Amino acid sequence: MLSRIAARVPSRVIGGVQKRNMAGKMGVKKNFHVEEWNGKREITEKTFEFGPDNVPWLIGTCAAFPLFVYYWTKSEMEERKEFKGRLL
């Protein structure tokens, strides 16, 4: 029954948004490198394998590097005269 109703309703009411070609008819050339990067970005979760070889890299990226940046920034702020006497 719904298919009969949908067949009678004009497509402009059902779709709501007009279908468009993004850059298909505008003469835009695709950049090969951008398209290649986009394809690799989309399949990253499929190519990543979690294992014992990745654990040190993940710990360094997610924990050690941010902590290093925090302590380095804090030490620089403590050395500057404008920040002396302020609570950090």
Give an account of the 3D structure.
There is one protein chain. The protein has 88 residues and is mainly alpha-helical. The protein has a domain at 50-88. Helix content is 59%, strand content 0%. It has five helices and no strands. It has helices spanning 2-8, 11-15, 32-42, 44-47, 55-79. The termini are far apart. The mean pLDDT is 75.
List the defining traits of the structure above.
88 residues; mainly alpha; 5 helices; membrane; transmembrane helix; transmembrane
Short description:
Keywords: Membrane, Transmembrane, Transmembrane helix. The chain crosses the membrane at residues 55-73. With 88 residues, this protein is an all-alpha fold.
Tell me the layout of helices and strands:
Blueprint: H1 2-8, H2 11-15, H3 32-42, H4 44-47, H5 55-79
The major pleated sheet works out as:
none
Gyration radius (Cα, Å) is 27 Å
Which spans of ≥5 residues are poorly predicted at pLDDT below 50? none
> What's the β-strand tally?
0
Helix coverage percent of residues? 55-70%
Strand content: under 5%
Shape: elongated
Give the ordered list of helices and strands.
HHHHH
Residue-averaged pLDDT? 75
| Category from helices, strands and their pairing | mainly alpha
- What is the count of DSSP helices, taking H or I runs of 4+ residues? 5
Straight-line distance between termini: 68 Å
